[in-house]
Amino acid sequence: MSGSPAVCRSVGIAGFRYRSIRGRASTTILKLGLAAAVLALLVLPQGAYGRKSPGLIGISPQDNATEADYQLMEEARVQSVRLPLFWSQVEPVRPFISDRDWTSFDIGLELAARHRMKVLVVVNGSPAWIASEPRLEPTFKWQRRAWASFLHAAVRRYGTGGSFWREHPDLPYLPVRDWEIWNEPNIVPNGRVNPELFAPVLRISGRMIHAADPGSKVILGGLFGRPLQIPPNLGSGEFLNQIYRTPHMKQYFDGVALHPYVADAKAMRAQIRNLRRIMRIHHDAGTPLYVTELGWGSASFESRWERGPMGQARQLDKAFGMLSRHRRAWRIAGAWWFSWSDVYGACQFCDSAGLLTKNREAKPAWYHFVRWTGGDPTMVRRARLGG
Prior knowledge:
single chain, alpha/beta, TIM Barrel, 8-stranded parallel beta sheet, two-stranded antiparallel ribbon
């Protein structure tokens, strides 16, 4: 997910900051409504937090989570976390000039393993010696050979029997088996938006990862469901359709990832059904879908993905309910909520997309989320109503 930073006026509501609503009367009504809604959530008996969907729901953080964050995720019974592995960070210069730097990803993987969470890795971000911008995938043969070498090194470090696990024998052994290739390659901010050029990258990735760690899954990187501007962007269905038209591609990926960002959760249905239709047409109906980003902001309607604090909670419930009900029919392998906490200065939607505020106080969406994971919602201090 990406976009320009938002500039906003804000007021303190429920212990975190939301964009102001014109007029004192509107503000008062909003505060009273929030107070009643949060109170209703908090007085639910413990058994009310029982709407579980084991193994379905994970977290896709948008910044580096801390030890305290992972402790809270464990208490919430989050079983999977999606972490980025940036090629540009590991190989800022050519690897024969300097050793690869795995430090940043090591930290995240260690924290996840220590708290018994599996990691789905999204691999992207070309270094400067490969492309003029990190968003651009490798295109020339020498660039793709460098990509293959990087992936091979990553699997040998983090996959089955990898060097990371030998260096950390005290950690629970949870090797990376799911590798998502690139992030939203069908929109201009994150890729070349060219299936013909992306297909060889996916082919190389599948060939290399399957050979280095048999049984690992290669996932076609999170397609943005329905971009606003087509062209220059390309819809997820058309992008996937053109990938399938490349000869012999099916053997190189084991899943398709989707980011169904919509104003209302019910619109996810059309996006998912469209991808499943295309997969059936290409005789690939058995391949699962991974919803590797899914979310709404708690700010007040500056974009179509911002629904207000209670709206964010409602959309979360509707989305997970739909995915849970149709999990088998749609072959949904998992869904990762974007994101864990708010990050100011990120994209317009991203700064309020968290379940928690920047100060790690619980929004209404937190309580709904934990109903699905079956964890303990009381481990996070709730946001207090304020003036």
